[in-house]
Amino acid sequence: MVVAPGNLVCNNCKNKLVHIKEPICMKCGKQLWQDGQYCYDCSRKHFSFDRGFALYNYNEDIRKSIIRFKYKGRGEYAKYYGMEMAKRYGDFLRIHHVNAVFPVPVHTKRLEQRGFNQAKLIGDILCENMGLASLDGMILRVKNTVPQKELDDVGRKKNLEKAFQPNKDFILSDKVKNVVIVDDIYTTGVTINACSKIIKKMFGCKVYFLVLAIGRGL
Question: Cα angle vertex 129, ends 25, 89, to 5°?
Fold first, then answer.
């Protein structure tokens, strides 16, 4: 499809991406399909992060888009995704005094294979659009984990044990108030929760997250 001048995506593709709509889980941002303030996961689990949001409901179209973005070299998708995050959730970040973005890190081996960290590309656009500081490199992924989608809940937790650690050589250029973690997909929240715990231990601040897609809430 032809992309109109000034646009980053054609209307046909844009219309296939299903935005999250109210009501949403007050913790992870999943769209809710029944009464209540929290999805099933968040009502029975404790998460370290304060609150999170997603742009889209996870469906086949956003799945294919993310695959092209991550594995087919379509890094330019990050500009559209990052600008959409800023447009949709910028006011929330400003109101809650978020001044720093932390993109979920990938292991060096995976970075070499892929050529880029998709979360960093999105986070960079968010920083540019909102004047936020980037905390990329502040926490390292020291364990080359198996993809979370291949595991059950117990396996995901075990998979991420000691997977992240603070980078002792990282130097902060600005004082951190509150932080937003950026990633592509939220499944069970284990990855974002692991990063949130470290960030809170480092700064004692509020930690939020933004992702491209999230599964169906119950």
Answer: 15
Retrieve residue 19's tokens. 């935005």
Domains identified in the chain and CATH numbers: 18-214 (3.40.50)
* Contact (Cβ atoms closer than 8 angstroms) between residue 212 and residue 53: no
**Nearest alpha carbon to residue 181 among 101, 125, 92:** 101
Q: Are 135 and 102 in contact (CB under 8 A)?
A: yes
* Full-model pTM: 0.89
123: its two tokens? 């986070």
d(CA 199, CA 138): 9
**Which pairing describes strands 51-57 and 207-214: parallel, antiparallel, or unpaired?**
parallel
CB 94 within 8 A of CB 142: no
Alpha carbon dihedral 134, 137, 138, 140, in 10-degree steps, equals 150
Q: Is the pLDDT of residue 120 over 90?
A: yes
